[in-house]
Amino acid sequence: MRSFATLGFLGAAALAAASDVHDLKTDTFKPFVEKHDLVLAEFFAPWCGHCKALAPEYEEAATTLKEKDIALVKVDCTEETQLCQDQGVEGYPTLKVFRKGSYDAPSTYPGQRKADAIVSYMTKQSLPAVSAVDSKTIEDFKTQDKVVVVAYFAADDKTSNTTFTAIADSLRDSHLFGATNDAALAEKEGVKQPAVVLYKSFDEGKNTFSEKFDSEAITSFIKTSATPLIGEVGPETYAGYMSAGLPLAYIFAEEQSERDDLAKELKPVAEKFKGKVSFATIDAKAFGQHGGNLNLEVGKWPAFAIQEINKNQKFPYSQDEKITAKSIEKFVNDFVTGKIEPSIKSEPIPESNDGPVTVVVAKNYEQIVKDDKKDVLIEFYAPWCGHCKALAPKYEELGALYSSFKDKVVVSKVDATANDVPDEVQGFPTIKLYPAGKKDSPVEYSGSRTIEDLAIFIRDNGSHKVDVVANVKKEKTEDDDEDEVAKATGDMPQQAMAASETEKGTAEKVTDKVKEAVEAVVTNLNDDEGGEADVHDEL
């Protein structure tokens, strides 16, 4: 047994030694970053489940990017506490991009925590916004990413050059951009200057824009053409579909073969509505709960639904009807022409709503939150959220402070898991203030969750400037609040994950009990879902 253990230890040591991810400390971090042109840094904690899920992906990306002189590093925040605080780390893992000469101004890595996504993003960051291409390099450039965009214009066409460069700069995180003034190359590619060609590794292979060089038109062309006719929604593609801005039609099915068959069946429909509605299949086994978000009955597959992304509206197709090209074409056409109403999930309007905190549901959301005469503070919460539970008694006290000012200030809450709301909610709790007379400009709260700070926030950002701060009683410290969260999450690992890994500012203070719960839930998710715990959270 000892020999096997020794071999295992030596194997692990050899693997660690061979790692292409640089393990940095406080004294080596800054010199390393300043020495390299481009660095991606991961700030992590050993107990963090999401960090463990990222590790093999990060290692794979590091090996690939090493050939391009792009370095990937990691910092253990449980050991290098001050360094992580200096870098503004508020949760794990945090990924930041450092460029040579800009140590004090890193950017946050916005992509998925998968090797391919990391490689694609960092490769784009290593190149100029627009790369010069010619007849010798064009073919290789086309293969650098799934989507590349090349402009063809004359050397003296300064207007087209300026327009395209601005577009490339704004979209450089999403695509690779190239340009050439070689007229012969343009002719060989079948275009007349000025023109833009989007090359892609799917569907028809390329699309050409040959209209007037207008920034808005070209940007729209790129976003539409870069979206597959019928792709697959998943962690790698979800953000792309959301940023495209088009309504998204989901095709839910459990088996890959069934998704392929439905995609083939609905391809003519997708072609007919290209540029108006994006179509994509989605794995109902892995992401069935997302069907619930679209007001579909989870478990009743296959299913079809359209999401109007810009308005956060859902249009589920009847799950009692068969999915056919003919029926879906009519459904999508009715959607495009405005003949069907969105489905709205809502709890019943409370019979009595006289408490210190007004209960909002989807059916009374506009009436309460958008009341133009009142400053309305609203908390978007989830019943399982530990931080929401810890906030609840203080939020009630906050509401009571405004009992004499109900004609000016409303303190409210909504269960965002049981009601469709138009707001963008990235986590729980999310708190926003809708000032009177400024309902189109809500202000999101990012301070500490104390009654005093919330009251100051309402006073400073509300239109009525109601001041109740002097009436606030002495409160517990934030450390006490963390203990309350730990108690609230002790028997609910889902809450523990939210509290310890995504909640800002609490990562260093989280209790051992919560950490253990995090590990337990990640382990369970990995066992049940093939190691895709992080994937499910992100989609």
From TrEMBL:
Catalysis performed (reactions): Catalyzes the rearrangement of -S-S- bonds in proteins
Entry keyword Endoplasmic reticulum: yes
Signal peptide from the UniProt entry: 1-18
InterPro entries: PDI_thioredoxin-like_dom, Prot_disulphide_isomerase, Thioredoxin-like_sf, Thioredoxin_CS, Thioredoxin_domain
Keyword annotations: Disulfide bond, Endoplasmic reticulum, Isomerase, Redox-active center, Repeat, Signal
The protein's Enzyme Commission number: 5.3.4.1
Residue pairs linked by disulfide bridges in the UniProt entry: 48-51, 385-388
Domain Thioredoxin: 7-127, 335-463
Protein name, entry field: Protein disulfide-isomerase
Organism expressing this protein natively: Elsinoe ampelina
